Amino acid sequence: MVKRTSLRGDYCPSARSLDVIGDWWSLLIVRDAFDGLTRFGEFQKSLGIAKNILSDRLRTLSERGILTVVAPADGGTHQEYHLTPKGRDLFPVMVALRQWGERYLFEPGEEHSRLVERDTGQAIQLEIRTADGRPVGPDHAVVLKVPQQGSLHPRPAERLRKSRSKPS
Amino acid sequence: MVKRTSLRGDYCPSARSLDVIGDWWSLLIVRDAFDGLTRFGEFQKSLGIAKNILSDRLRTLSERGILTVVAPADGGTHQEYHLTPKGRDLFPVMVALRQWGERYLFEPGEEHSRLVERDTGQAIQLEIRTADGRPVGPDHAVVLKVPQQGSLHPRPAERLRKSRSKPS
DNA sequence: TCAAACGGTTTCATCATGCAACCGTTTTGG
DNA sequence: CCAAAACGGTTGCATGATGAAACCGTTTGA
Hints:
- Two copies of one chain form a homodimer.
- Helix content of chain A is 34%, strand content 17%.
- Chain A is α+β, with helices and mostly antiparallel strands.
- Chain A starts with a strand and ends in an 8-residue tail after the last strand.
- Mean pLDDT of chain A is 84; it is low at 148-156 and 159-168.
- Chain B binds a DNA duplex (30 and 30 nucleotides) through helix 3 and helix 4.
């Protein structure tokens, strides 16, 4: 049978992250949540996503603790989807994707939205540094594998039934 | 007809990035490339990915300028896949994903691989700062939309035939 | 020289996605 | 107060994407 791949057991944190938020829509929903969208219809209109898929993703993101479902403060009855702290901590991922996209996926003169500090309007950027503050590039970084299990990567990804199904 | 979604035209750089590298396998391949893997079989063994899918992704990543196909230096005949500068600039994305995964997707005592500076062994982390060096959190950042087109997001995602097909 | 490994491509079954229709509830408004 | 529209989904179906296995030409190695 064709099973979807899971990287839940991988010892590489990047792989596990991708397992959780690496699908087509999840990060886009998170992006819109950062932009202040909270309601089903808002996400749907913004993304043009099919309603069943949106429904599934909102549920999954909630199950995984990235969104939380709350009743709106202003007495309304429709529920709202808000970022949890765990979800808000995806901010650097969004910034990193944004920065790369700005550099490589826009024509020279083409406009794009910009990320700035709210109070000052200053541009925001992302830096990679050592603990004592020296900047580091990809060529000077290396990944230390988990000692146990000699193989380069601990084991090939597991396969399982459905990567993101409702827990029966 | 059911068409895959494309965000190529979105004015949000994050969305465009996800359009390019947001699928299930691409970033995992890039991660392995950062780890020094270069050959088809190495990626296949490491990821446990089906060969046809790997073949497709390597081709797509090359077409998009993230990998480049080179003949090995040591006289061998089998080709190798190397990161381009564009691909290497995905480093911050990998670090951001790693950092989030480390924090939220591992049990307290559970081991994971670590990213360190090669020469010193110091831990590497990612920081978000303004142009003049002040750190910024998600609550103090805001996205300035592209002025033209009043809508919150310029337009719902286009639909098109195949998001990542070979160019006939 | 023969066999195995490498690097894919093709075929086919199954899963995920997208669309449209439907449905109960909430809001609007006449 | 009642009708109609909007909201927030769920269900069913058609189709595209994925995964497994078979196959194949080339390269390696014994």
